[in-house]
Design goal:
Layout (H helix, E strand, L loop, with lengths): L21 H10 L14 E2 L11 H8 L9 H14 L3 E5 L2 H12 L5 E4 L4 H9 L3 E4 L20 H10 L8 E4 L12 H14 L3 E4 L3 H11 L8 H10 L3 E5 L10 E5 L2 H15 L9 H14 L2 H20 L12 E5 H4 L9 H13 L1 E2 L1 E3 L1 H4 L15 E5 L7 H16 L8 E5 L10 E4 L2
Parallel strand pairs: 1-10, 3-4, 5-6, 6-7
Antiparallel strand pairs: 2-8, 7-8, 9-12, 11-12, 13-14
Helix pairs in contact: 1-14, 2-11, 3-11, 4-5, 4-10, 6-7, 8-9, 12-16, 14-16
The structure holds ligand F0G.
Keywords: Lyase, Pyridoxal phosphate
Family: Belongs to the beta-eliminating lyase family.
Protein name: Tryptophanase
Length: about 450
């Protein structure tokens, strides 16, 4: 008999989590103004808000923490991180930052100016926020197939090279400080980009003299999909694939809270020494001296170790198989989600589930609240609240997809938790016909409103 799949780790330390009653959850979500970010985490049973910084570090990472060098300048921890970035990712220059958006801030402070355009495959919301805040334009060039949740293709996060070339032809290269390739494509559902497409994007950038920035938050998961789905890569190691993938980029911004499996950390890496020098000024101003940026020595140590573990096949197989397991459970119950299952999350297709809720009442947010009320499970809306208002007209933007993301933290929950999640989603799905009304906004900030927005039930 073929042995079933199992995790490539055993558990050495546990953290207690508490169940609650529906009545308690009704009060808590009301107090949270129907914004899942406002909930106290102890009021959440299974927390799928994000896979960012919520993973479990390994024994080796914890022991690396104890060896952190907390010197202000030139700490050995900095050099450990430098070696890992050079050896595993292949970038010569880097600046540590406290997380991914801080790397974006340092980079875009240096290279983006008012009136610029930055094309990409579904810029993550902080990336877009940093571009729009500087009165530049983020142009989405993701393939159209990504918006059809039921279409099953292996690389659904790709850049549409025709759309990209159109941008390159329309704007002079002085107006395009960089092109952002996000691996994996979070917003499109944790969907990967093939090596062929990475290469194609890089070639197009080179042809037009444009810098290619890789947003590598989930670069290792992307490499796993290349290994398991793209012809010619089955026999290559994850580390070999990672080196090739990143060799096509000029710059990498990294939220290490994802694929480097740390609770806090990030960096900005590049090949160009001159650019590195220019970025140093903003690193010093916003983050810290160039050999620690926003990080302590122990965090840099854990990050270096995490980059190594996170690019091991076993680690990635365990993780991505767990997400796929949840996907198969949802298939059993006929629940629509962005297919195939993504690397870090399942994205429920809220428009197909709550067909009676009008788009003006935030369909995916409504589904998120229902799932919380059902079982204390917290997902996150990837829909029109996140899409924010048009920076010029200030009208609400309604994206093609209204998704509820269930992000799975790394090495944190077991497949029993996946069973509970699937059952809870099924229970909401079974009563979908009775859910007719959503929520309206009562308070919001001008940029990245979804974190702090306040809502009330629509009347
Ligand atoms: N890029 C991508 C693709 C991301 O998913 C994120 C964060 C960032 C950049 C910014 O990194 O959070 O370290 O500042 N994504 C988290 C999420 C927040 O839940 O998907 P950060």
């Amino acid at each position: 008999m073929e042995l079933p799949f199992s995790e490539s780790y055993r558990i050495k330390m546990v953290e207690h989590i508490k169940k609650s009653t529906r009545q308690e959850r009704e009060a808590w979500i009301r107090e949270a103004k129907y914004n899942l970010f406002n909930l106290h985490s102890e009021h959440v049973f299974i927390d799928l808000l994000t896979d960012s910084g919520t993973g479990a570090m390994s024994d080796k990472q914890w022991s690396a923490m104890m060896l952190g060098d907390e010197s202000y300048a030139g700490a050995s921890s900095y050099y450990k991180m430098k070696d890992a970035i050079q050896n595993i990712l292949g970038f010569e220059y880097f600046l540590p930052t406290h997380q991914g958006r801080a790397a974006e801030n340092v980079l875009y402070s240096t290279i983006v100016k008012e009136g610029d355009v930055v094309p990409g495959n579904s810029h993550f919301d902080t990336t877009k926020g940093h571009i729009e805040y500087r009165r530049a334009l983020a142009i989405d060039c993701t393939i159209d197939a990504a918006a059809n949740t039921q279409l099953e293709i292996p690389f659904k996060g790709e850049m549409d090279l025709e759309k990209l070339e159109k941008v390159f032809k329309e704007y002079p290269k002085e107006k395009i400080p960089c092109c952002v390739l996000t691996l994996t494509n979070n917003t499109a559902g944790g969907q990967p980009v093939s090596m062929k497409n990475i290469k194609g994007t890089a070639e197009l950038c080179r042809k037009y003299g444009i810098t290619l920035q890789i947003d590598g938050a989930r670069f290792a998961e992307n490499a796993y999909f290349i290994k398991t789905r793209e012809e010619g890569y089955a026999d290559k190691s994850i580390k070999e694939i990672v080196r090739e993938m990143l060799s096509y980029g000029d710059i990498m911004t990294m939220s290490s809270k994802k694929d480097a499996i740390v609770n806090m950390g990030g960096f900005l890496a590049m090949r160009d020494q001159e650019l590195w020098r220019r970025c140093q000024m903003f690193c010093v101003m916003y983050e810290g001296f160039i050999t620690y940026g926003g990080l302590s020595g122990r965090e840099m140590n854990a990050l270096a170790q995490g980059l190594d573990e996170g690019t091991e096949f076993d680690t990635l197989e365990t993780r991505i198989e767990q997400v796929a397991y949840l996907g198969r459970k949802l298939d059993e119950y006929g629940i629509p989600y962005q297919r195939p299952a993504g690397g870090h999350a399942i994205f429920l297709d809220a428009k197909k589930i709550l067909t009676n809720v009008p788009k003006e009442e935030f369909i995916a947010q409504t589904l998120g609240i229902e799932l919380y009320l059902e079982a204390g499970i917290r997902g996150v809306e990837i829909g029109s609240i996140l899409a924010d208002r048009d920076p010029i007209t200030r009208e609400n933007r309604y994206p093609r997809l209204e998704l509820l993301r269930l992000a799975i933290p790394r090495r944190t929950y077991t497949n029993n938790h996946m069973d509970v999640i699937a059952a809870a989603v099924k229970n909401v799905y079974d009563r979908r016909e009775q859910i007719n009304r959503g929520y309206v906004i009562t308070k919001e900030l001008p940029v990245m409103r979804h974190f702090t927005v306040e809502l009330e039930p629509a009347k």
